[in-house]
Amino acid sequence: MKRLDRIALGRELHLARTIKGYTTRQMQDLTGISAATVSRVERAHPDTLASAETTLVLCDFFGLDPLSFLVRTDGADLFHGKTPVKQAGVQQAGSW
Q1: Less crowded by CB within 10 Å, the N or C end of the chain?
Q2: How many Å apart are CA 90 and CA 82, to the nearest integer?
Q3: 3-class DSSP state for residue 21?
Q4: CB of 34 closer than 8 Å to CB of 41
Q5: How crowded is the C-beta side of 76, counted as CA atoms within 13 Å?
Q6: Are 20 and 94 in contact (CB under 8 A)?
Q7: Of all helices (H) and strands (E), which one includes residue 9?
Q8: How many angstroms separate the CA atoms of 40 and 62, rounded?
Q9: What is the C-alpha separation between 16 and 61, in angstroms, rounded?
């Protein structure tokens, strides 16, 4: 069975946005995805990636292959724990 590794996806999307210098509000204007949803996707919030459209639009915007974030699972739950931003120790004033 394969599942979307939303932690890896969130980490890559956050990194890509940071490198490009976009705020979540700018992402909202550029993609039509709300700033709050962009933030939740980056933090791997469980309900935000239920929408394939959100995943595909954000991956396309940054040139990421969404299929590269599919991982084979062995029954272990890879999708809980620290969020990507917290794992990386990244803090942004006033953003979460």
Answers
A1: N
A2: 12
A3: coil
A4: no
A5: 6
A6: no
A7: helix 6-20
A8: 17
A9: 10
